[in-house]
């Protein structure tokens, strides 16, 4: 298969090296540090450089497309309990924390790395403009549970907005729901 997912397809078609996938409802935005990868490949794909790129793009688009003057981005750890100081993996200590430290020095408001199993609670999310999950199935199940049928997908750095969510089973039946599109567009400024 030439593309691991639609995000990679859109990136290639728009001639972008890096596109950041984010799903959003009116209450929650979850972006991904990696997209459609097997779990075994995720740790190797998370580098200081990749986190710099993803977070810089996410911060930029939260400011320019979502109209958030100083976005607060909460960042998940990769390992259970965000690594517990290296006892459950070193990616937080060796990669994620150094990347976040450098980005904070550039003025990006970041919290984390935080354990994903406790981050998605209202007491934390009320302060977050977006959550950055390290991989697809770390953050998206929470968002889809919370907002299934209301979530929209946004790809930071694309030159167009693909509208996803239509079903091939509904194609041509006249039964497509446009509710999600309108709800999602309420949170995104026009690119024009």
TrEMBL record:
Q: What class of enzyme is it?
A: oxidoreductase
Q: Where is the composition biased (Polar residues)?
A: 183-192
Read off the lineage from the record.
Bacteria, Pseudomonadati, Pseudomonadota, Gammaproteobacteria, Enterobacterales
Taxonomically, the superkingdom here is: Bacteria
Molecular functions per Gene Ontology? 4-hydroxythreonine-4-phosphate dehydrogenase activity; metal ion binding; NAD binding
Disordered as annotated region, ranges = 171-192
Q: What organism does this protein naturally occur in?
A: Serratia odorifera
Which InterPro entries is this protein grouped with? PdxA_fam
Q: Kindly provide the name given to this protein in its UniProt entry.
A: 4-hydroxythreonine-4-phosphate dehydrogenase
What are the protein's UniProt keywords? Metal-binding, NAD, Oxidoreductase
* Pfam families reported in the protein's UniProt record: PdxA
Which interval of the chain is the signal sequence?
Answer: none
GO BP annotations of the record are: pyridoxal phosphate biosynthetic process; pyridoxine biosynthetic process
């Amino acid at each position: 298969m030439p593309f691991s997912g639609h995000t990679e397809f859109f990136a290639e078609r728009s001639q972008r090296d890096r596109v950041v996938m984010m799903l959003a409802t009116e209450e929650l935005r979850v972006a991904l540090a990696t997209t459609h990868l097997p779990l075994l490949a995720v740790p190797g794909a998370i580098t200081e450089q990749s986190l710099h790129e993803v977070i810089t793009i996410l911060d930029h688009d939260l400011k320019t497309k979502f109209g958030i003057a100083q976005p607060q981005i909460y960042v998940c750890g990769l390992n259970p309990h965000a690594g517990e100081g290296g006892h459950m993996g070193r990616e937080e200590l060796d990669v994620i924390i150094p990347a976040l430290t450098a980005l904070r020095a550039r003025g990006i408001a970041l919290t984390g790395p935080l354990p994903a199993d406790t981050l998605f609670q209202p007491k934390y999310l009320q302060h977050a403009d977006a959550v950055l999950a390290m991989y697809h199935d770390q953050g998206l199940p929470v968002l889809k549970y919370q907002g299934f049928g209301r979530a929209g997908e946004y790809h930071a750095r694309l030159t167009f907005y693909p509208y996803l969510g239509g079903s091939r089973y509904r194609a041509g039946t006249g039964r497509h729901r446009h509710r999600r599109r309108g709800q999602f567009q309420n949170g995104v400024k026009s690119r024009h």
